[in-house]
Amino acid sequence: MIRNIFHSKIFRFIIGGGVAAAINLFLIFSLIEWCGFNTPLLRNIANLISIEISLLASFFIYRIWVWTGGNWTVKEVLWKQIPLYHVSAGVAVITRIFIIFPILDWLHVNYVANTLVGVISSASLNYLISDRLIFKTPKSPIESNYKGRPAEFSSEMYYPEGLAPGLENTSLLHREFLDVSSGKIRVLSIVIPAYNEEGCIVDTVLAISQILERQNIDYEILVVNDNSRDRTEELLQQLSRENSQVHYVNNHYPNGFGFAVRCGLEKFQGDAVAIVMADSSDAPDNIVDYYYKLQEGYDCVFGSRFIKGGKVIDYPVHKLMINRLANLFIQILFGLSYNDTTNAFKIYRREVIEGIFPLVSHHFNLTVEIPLKAIVRGYSYTIIPITWQNRKTGVSKLKLKEMGSRYLFVVLYIWLEKHLSRGDYVRKKHQIITSSQN
């Protein structure tokens, strides 16, 4: 095991970065203390010199020790790889100082966690950019072609070796090939958490039920009343009387979005379940898209509002910016191509829900816990474009300042599971080749 760790790219990348940092410190000390660079101007010059030399040192350490092979021509190295590496390092530092630190500070994340996240994210960003755009190495025979054709050199982007376990289900390259006909969905359940949604719950339920009936999809709509203080429960009683396929339960957990969803996931009766928001922000047509995509054999179908064909309507600008940064952080940390993890609107087969329990999130961070656990534990998925529009009535229950540390907790918790559990939770039986639309 120790030998495998030593030979992994990520381990060597970390060691190489440490050596480069030591070179930086040694050079700046030498220039100031021994060479007399001891005025404000000369100290700045010493700093620039030491940073540049340490960057070049780290480049060649990575080039020789981490990403071996590849193109070593003078033109390729001097005019392409080294300039790109400077851009990569600059982007990582700028992202850390001017984006990640201020956002986490605004969310009142503890400065220790803030620093840790900043270091991890900037290093991860530098690693991914270096791995995918700068140091292009040959693929192994397995990676080059899973149908038995010989390996050949490829300059296409590929998934980093150290991040492979979390990426398997987004790639056409699998270790195991499996049964695509893993079972048809007979009954589709829709779980809707609702807290003080008297202004929109009826319209949401009716829109979903009507489109599913038009498509002849056997369904169950289960609304979880999260101890609402308005007329939500009264309206749910009326809906359930009018439509035998609409049910509601009162959340038996303490109040909270995550608790309400968990309550619904414990009680749904279908072969698959879609989590849908009560405020009509999720397009009912996309539920049908999910259903038919799931019938192809995938374990999960994830929607993205930020790929070709996706759409957002009336998204508050500050929430959109934070959403994009949070999803970028998750993408970098887990090495994912999927860019909308934080959105709750997704669909899962029953066996996926059973396989990711127990859930630990109490609030909106559950929207991240469920898909990340499904990905890390080896369930197959595909990605389709979806439409989202801001609520027309009621008040959003998501409080960004209260959720920052909770999102960070669950993301790091699953990241640790991925890297330290040694595959104890990964599904071992059959898997499925998956693809995503970009």
What are the SSEs and their pairings?
Blueprint: H1 2-7, H2 9-34, H3 40-66, H4 74-106, H5 111-134, H6 141-144, H7 164-167, E1 188-194, H8 201-214, E2 219-225, H9 232-242, E3 246-250, H10 257-267, E4 272-275, H11 284-294, E5 300-304, E6 311-313, H12 317-334, E7 346-349, H13 350-356, H14 366-376, E8 381-385, E9 387-389, H15 400-420
Parallel strand pairs: 1-2, 1-4, 2-3, 5-8, 6-9
Antiparallel strand pairs: 4-7, 5-7
Helix pairs in contact: 2-3, 4-5, 8-11, 14-15
Number of structural units classed as domains:
2
Q: Based on the structure given, which CATH architecture of the largest domain is correct?
A: Alpha-Beta Complex
The first-level CATH class name of the largest domain: Alpha Beta
Would you count the extended β strands for me? 9
Q: Let me know the largest β-sheet.
A: 7 strands, mixed
Can you give the helix content as a percent range? 40-55%
Rg, please?
A: 25 Å
Overall morphology: elongated
Q: What is the topology, as strand order, of the major beta sheet?
A: 3-2-1-4-7-5-8
Residue-averaged pLDDT: 80
Structure description:
It is a single chain. This protein is α/β, with parallel strands linked by helices. The protein folds into two domains: 2-136, no CATH class; 188-403, Spore Coat Polysaccharide Biosynthesis Protein SpsA, Chain A (Alpha-Beta Complex), CATH 3.90.550.10. Helices cover 52% and strands 10% of the residues. It contains 15 helices and nine strands. β1, α8 and β2 (219-225) form a beta-alpha-beta unit. It is elongated. The two termini are 37 Å apart. Mean pLDDT is 80; it is low at 137-182 and 430-436.
